[in-house]
Write a structure and sequence with these properties.
2 domains; 434 Repressor (Amino-terminal Domain); 0% strand; 156 residues; elongated; 63% helix; mainly alpha
Length: 156
């Protein structure tokens, strides 16, 4: 597991104001097991992380866990912070507006009009479009988990 993620479980537990003893009880594990997860000695199984997400509550923990425990997921799932609702909305709208102002939808239609991205179309513009789409996905994810959003959980 990546060292950057070793303390994510402890960070979310502490933010919820839970002791290791109380958290272990809620998760149905031994305190030592939880301590090992928090120290990065072992990676908790997905079902226990799902319980953490609910018990702490920490919906973004599911994203952090997936990125840390799977190289595949790390390449596909953008890092997303739990932002205040207004900031998350502003970031998403900004990314979408930038995409629109650059006429990226038109570029996508043109590039994909023959049903594939040809070698000659894999240009700097295609790379820019891909990065801008990743930014939109990240902003949308942050909005989904924004502080103040109505009853958002990792399962929604």
């Amino acid at each position: 597991m990546n060292d950057d993620y070793r303390t994510m479980y402890a960070r979310h537990r502490k933010a919820a104001g839970l002791t290791q003893e109380k958290a272990a009880e809620l998760l149905g594990v031994a305190v030592r097991t939880l301590a090992n997860w928090e120290a990065g000695i072992y990676t908790p199984p997905d079902d226990k992380v799902a319980l953490m997400c609910d018990a702490y509550p920490a919906p973004t923990l599911a994203l952090e866990h997936l990125r840390a425990s799977s190289a595949l997921a790390a390449g596909l799932i953008p890092e997303a912070a739990q932002l205040p609702l207004a900031q998350a909305v502003a970031q998403l709208l900004y990314c979408m507006r930038q995409f629109e102002q650059k006429h990226r939808a038109d570029d996508l239609i043109w590039i994909s009009s023959n049903g594939q991205v040809d070698e000659g179309e894999q240009t700097e513009r295609w790379c820019e479009i891909s990065e801008e789409l990743r930014d939109i996905v990240k902003a949308a994810t942050q909005l989904r988990f924004a502080q103040g959003a109505v009853a958002t959980t990792w399962r929604d």
